[in-house]
Every structure is written in structure tokens, then in C-alpha cells.
Amino acid sequence: MRSALTDKRLFISIKSIIEQSRENIVRNINAAMVFTYFEIGRIITENEQKGKERAEYAKEVLKNLSESLIKEFGKGYSVDNLELMRLFYQQYRKSETLSRISEKGANSLISETASRISDYSSQLGWSHYVQLLKIKDIEERKFYQIEAIQNNWTVRELRRQYQSSLYERLALSRDKNGVMQLTKKGQIIEKATDAIKNPYVLEFLELQEDHRYSENDLETAIIDKLEHFMLELGKGFLFEGRQRRFSFEGQDFYVDLVFYNRLLRSFVIFDLKIGALTHQDIGQMQMYVNYYDRMIKTPDENPTIGIILCKEDNKTVVEFTLPQDNKQIYSREYKLYLPSKAELKKQLE
């Protein structure tokens, strides 16, 4: 009689195959949708270019086409969706001239369509592309596309990162060359400033600006929504703990939040402040950073990074409290609401 352990191993092996198969099926369905809509967009665009139709006539053609497709295949082919397919083709087609494939078989169409879509990735479904098409600035769109692929973002995560102005907030911490790299390679983490945003957006905590809350309330809200906070922090962060205690001569000190960034290979500690930044806050963070550098980190790890997350920053206090070559301690504001993209873009100009 076979043991229960053998039966369990058999179940796990088969379960793994089924789950992988389901993932492949979903991925293939998503790819087929993207390719199909790209080709529909191509045909619509080429039809319009041949006919040189007036805008009013083109709309009538799309309306009639939509009605026919819905009658034949059901919902999903509204005029708005057909316009999205046309825009998808126009925005993502490669510039070089490629052979016509409309008369080839379905398998050939699918394989060749992938090569016709600029920067195509099987990790992105049609819903991802719909969200990306809403981004008018091409360089900004490239950034979000790269990040969505590298971080395996769901559509919901992609939408949230765009609405929280991730691109602008990272760009504010970089020079012009750094901003150009964002659009070519996405967020590359090589030094402390690469991992830091300005500001941090914590709208998911659902704390109200006009209500009183304590630093403990802020910390508890972050812990309760830790997954969301980790997404806001970005690449490479691992949670190490909260209220980490250390003592000097009988006096206890507590670090609010401690993370480790595996890409930077360094501890990243946060001190939460619900008011304006003071020089005492910076002095306290300096002590925390010194302690972690001298007592916690190993010789092969990089220096500790300290981030004071405050309601109101004070750049002058930071400038005259920290040394000019400071590369470890930073102050950043947090927002409890989604910032205005227009306001952040203005700061970039």
C-alpha cells in the first residue's frame, strides 16, 4: 500500500502541471487578442488611407463595421474599441516596411504579427495596452511599459502607478541624463537616489488630510497595507521589521520601519514624521544610520540608507545639517492623496 507521502507528491506534481498549463492557456489567449486587435487596427488604417475619406465618412464606416462585427461575434467591437485598435496599430507598428500577411494562414499571421509590434512582450495583455495608450507622452509611455514588463504589473498596478505619477516622481530625483535612462531602460537601481521617490504617495492608507492622526497611526496604517507600501517603494525592497529597538546606556531607541534592498545590498530605514522636518529629526536619523552601519550591517554590505518621511520637507535645514557629500540620509514628503500630474510636470520643466 502506497504511503500518504507518495500520494501527496503525485498530487503536487500533477497540480503543478495543470497550473502551468492554465497559465500558458491564459497567456496564449492574451497574445491572440493582442495580435488580432493589432491586425484589425492595421486593416482599418489601411482602408482609411486608401479611401482618403472625410472624418465624417470614416466614422460612419466604423459604425457600420461595429454593428456587423457585433452581430457576428458579439460584444467587444464597439466603435470606441475599434478606434482603440486603430490607435494601437498606429502607435505600436514598427517604422520599417514589412511584407503583407493578410493573405497568409492564421499561424503565420500570429507569428509575424508579433514581429510587427514595437517592443512587444507576451507579459502584456490587451488591457495593459489600453492603459498604455492613454499616456500621450511617448517617452513616458515607454517607461511604464518597461516597468510593467520588468515588475510583472497587473493592469490595476499599472493604472495605480500611472495615476500616482511614478514617472514624474522618479524624474524629480534625477538629472536630464537620468530621465533619459528612465525612458530607455526603466528604473535602474544602482545608488540610493535611484530607489527614492519624491514625493511618496500613500493614498491607499485612506488617512484623511483634515483629520488628526499620530505617527503611530501612520505606521500602523502602513503595516496594515504593507503590500501596497512595498509596491510604492519599488524594486528590490524586503521588509525586515518595525519598531526595531536598540539601547545605549540603559536608554532605548526605536526605528520605525526597517527594510533591506537586495539591489543596493543595504538596509533602508524609515523614520515617520507627521509634521515639518526639523534638524533634530535629521540628528536622530544620523544616529540610527550610524548604529546600523557599525552594529548591524556586515562588511560586504553597502552603507545604510536613512529616509525621513515627513509631512513637510525643509531643504534648507537638510542642506545645512548634513555634510555636502551626504549619500546616506534623505528627507522626503509623503502625500495622502494622488498628486496632480500637471503640478509635477511643471516642477520638471
Q: What number is the mean pLDDT?
A: 86
Tell me the overall shape.
Answer: globular
Low-confidence stretches: 95-106
Strand order within the widest beta sheet: 1-6-5-4-3-2
The assigned CATH architecture of the largest domain is 3-Layer(aba) Sandwich
Overall number of domains? 2
> Mind describing the biggest β-sheet?
6 strands, mixed
Instruction: Report the CATH C-level class of the largest domain.
Output: Alpha Beta
Q: Give me the secondary-structure category.
A: alpha/beta
Write up this protein.
With 349 residues, this protein is α/β, with parallel strands linked by helices. It has two domains: 4-133, no CATH class; 189-348, Trna Endonuclease, Chain: A, domain 1, CATH 3.40.1350. It has 14 helices and six strands. It has helices at 4-51, 55-73, 79-92, 106-116, 126-133, 138-150, 155-163, 166-171, 176-185, 215-224, 226-233, 279-296, 315-321, 341-348, and strands spanning 200-201, 237-248, 251-261, 266-276, 305-312, 329-335. Strands 1-6-5-4-3-2 form a six-stranded mixed beta sheet. Strand 2 (237-248) and strand 3 form a beta hairpin. Helix 1 crosses helix 3 (79-92). Residues 95-106 have low confidence and may be disordered.
